[in-house]
Amino acid sequence: MRKISPEERQLMRRSYAEKIVETVRKKGFITLTIQDLAHLMGISRASLYNFFASKEDIILEVTEIYIDYLKRTNDFISNPRYPYSQRMPTVFEQAAFSAVYASEIYLHELKMTCPSLYERKKQLADERILTLQTFYENGIIDGDFNLLNPALIIAQDDAALRKILNSNFLAEKGMSLEDSMYGYYKIMKYRTFAPALLKTSKDPYIDKVVGVIVGQLNKK
């Protein structure tokens, strides 16, 4: 194998870890063997060990994907340089991905096997809630948002998206994933923005967000 730089190695680690995220969120990882993981990554067992020291190292990289995502989106949501209308689609995207990838089986197994990593992930998830709380509170103070309880808004979004994305809800209602994403974002927008600032036209930022969500969740 040719020698690769540390930067390239990290990029390849991340790309291989991304290939098993869907399986880990649905089935957990305790029962997966190194051979199973190599198969999911599309590489040999020997090649896997060029990038990961152990199964625990693989789960570390999988968890870092979510941690990095939360850090990045928290920073954007809390950045006042961007208007609330531009940050709201990221609030929606973050809620959708948190509802899906923070699955009960994954979190339970992470807590059992890697408690320190679980605590890091939990800390970022708690910071996400604080970031959203501040986002809504500032929006209310600035007069952009309706006078609603931020804690209830956050809880509503997390519960609703978890039901929509982690159950047979879409099949039962005859809805596509794409339609449900646009539909729920519209609910968030109409609920949150003050009437004078509500734009009834399609949000120019939401298409990309919905595309990312649908693309990720439709991966086999």
For this entry, give a set of tags.
220 residues, mainly alpha, elongated, 12 helices
Helix-strand blueprint:
Elements: H1 6-18, H2 21-27, H3 34-41, H4 45-48, H5 55-77, H6 84-101, H7 104-113, H8 115-141, H9 150-165, H10 169-173, H11 177-192, H12 206-217
Helix pairs in contact: 1-5, 5-6, 5-8, 6-9, 6-12, 7-8, 9-11, 11-12
User: What number is the mean pLDDT?
Assistant: 90
The number of helical runs is: 12
Shape: elongated
Residue windows where pLDDT falls under 50 for at least 5 positions: none
Largest sheet: none
Q: Helix content range of the residues, please? A: over 70%
SS-based structural class?
mainly alpha
Radius of gyration: 19 Å
State which percent range the strand residues make up: under 5%
Q: What is the oligomer described by this structure?
A: single chain
**Kindly, what is the distance between the CA atoms of the first and last residues, rounded to a whole number of angstroms?**
29 Å
How many beta-strand segments?
0
Give the topology string: H per helix, E per strand: HHHHHHHHHHHH
How would you characterize this protein structure?
- With 220 residues, this protein is an all-alpha fold.
- The chain starts with 5 loop residues before the first helix and ends with a helix.
- The chain has helices spanning 6-18, 21-27, 34-41, 45-48, 55-77, 84-101, 104-113, 115-141, 150-165, 169-173, 177-192, 206-217.
- The longest helix has 27 residues, at 115-141.
- The chain is built from twelve helices and no strands.
- Helices cover 72% and strands 0% of the residues.
- The mean pLDDT is 90.
- α5 packs antiparallel against α6 (84-101) and α9 (150-165) packs antiparallel against α11 (177-192).
- The chain is elongated and about 60 Å long.
